[in-house]
Design goal:
19 strands; Aminopeptidase; single chain; Porin; 9 helices
Amino acid sequence: MRRSYLCRFAAAVLFVLFSLGGNATELEQQLRDHVRILASDSLQGRGLGTQGAERARNYIIQQFREAGIEPLAEDYLQPFNFRQNLVWVDAWNIVGVVRGTDPVLRNEYILIGAHYDHLGFTMDGDSKRIFPGADDNASGVAAIIEIGRHFAQNPDLLGRSLIIVAFDAEESGLLGSRYFVNHAPVPLVQIRKMFSLDMVGMYAANNGVHLRGISSLVQGDDLARELAGNMEVSIRRTGQRIERRTDTAPFGDSGIPATHVFTGQKSPYHKPGDQYHLLDYQGMARVVAFMNGLLAELSVRPVLEPASSLPEVSVQSQAKRRQGVAAGALVNIGSGFHRYPDEFFTADALFAFSAGLYLQVPLTRLLTLQGEAHYDRNASMISGGEFYRHSVTFPLNIQIGTPGGMSQDVRLFYFAGPYYRYSFAGKVAGEAMDFDNLFRNEEWGYSMGVGMNIFRVYIGYTSRRALTSLSRLEAFDLRDSNGYFTLGYRF
């Protein structure tokens, strides 16, 4: 096994060195053509929801197909949508695969990704100001197309299978890669390594390439530097820390070793001047050839072990269950009064408040279960003075509202459900409550109201009414009512 592994590694290095020398001009031209088209004015900066984004998507699918990259699922597209401000936006990841040839390892995956969205355009009077995004990130998309082509034409170099993803909505908060992780078409435990190629068009200007997060894979740094030395590739920044500002972040959060492949920020970053003719295509070809060698080597290694600092990889079903789960703190401020169902009057209201923690668990896109635990001070005015209690209250509500999830910034909902309250102290007109003879410690009732999540803030109105009497005396029915304005914050 060891001899076979070394032979394949040597063959891969020789093949890459040959490719770098003999086919560099052809590879450079292919990369240039991809970037020229993806960063052209006709694609309008590949902004979300634009015709330019659709044209980019169609071009990438066409290139995947022509390169021999197969769709991982029934087709190449993985659709999703999200709310941006008050508008719903449709988006699509593009997902392909090149199958490995090792009978055991082919059921494991290495993923290479690059986001294809950019900032679109703005209007300056009647003129359109386009942000073409040549380095950011037409360069990365061009690279993964050619990496995919290389392995589709030379499948014997792959042991593990190679997933190739063009992510959408990266510029809106890594939404495409987050969606992929939460809806992975293969179990996450089978994805052993991830690379994000984001801005790889300025190798010479930055004197090399960064591999941020390569040490999140055990021995990843040593392997990369050994290969780079053989290929005369300059590696600059490495390390174990996974980059948070690109599509590596959701994978690292899920326990998958992830590396940001990046040649630096000397291009006109997020400016109209980021145009295709400014890129270093000879350097891009060098980065692609290096990645071909590194991927070939990683694909045949017997074990790819994540660094101990990474969390345990969760299986796909666990990731789905976690999606949208939120915890936070909230405060209810309002008033309360006592009802006397057998009488014609009610007591006057007094200030009431509660404070505690909540947990939201999505059940479907429209339904959410919210459990709460509060300290509760509820009160009422009686003829002899104040009647108040100190309690702990546990509401359990079902919310029905607009769709929720990891990418929904605003959510409106109605809610209703039971609550249980236990009172441990209180006073009636200055005298301590007699829980042994006159008053009950326990109370059951229901809550209902409306609410809204705005980013991390929770606001709403809650009405809470008791169904059981506070009084132990059968002839005297006394029930609590409260109305609160609610303010909360999600951790």
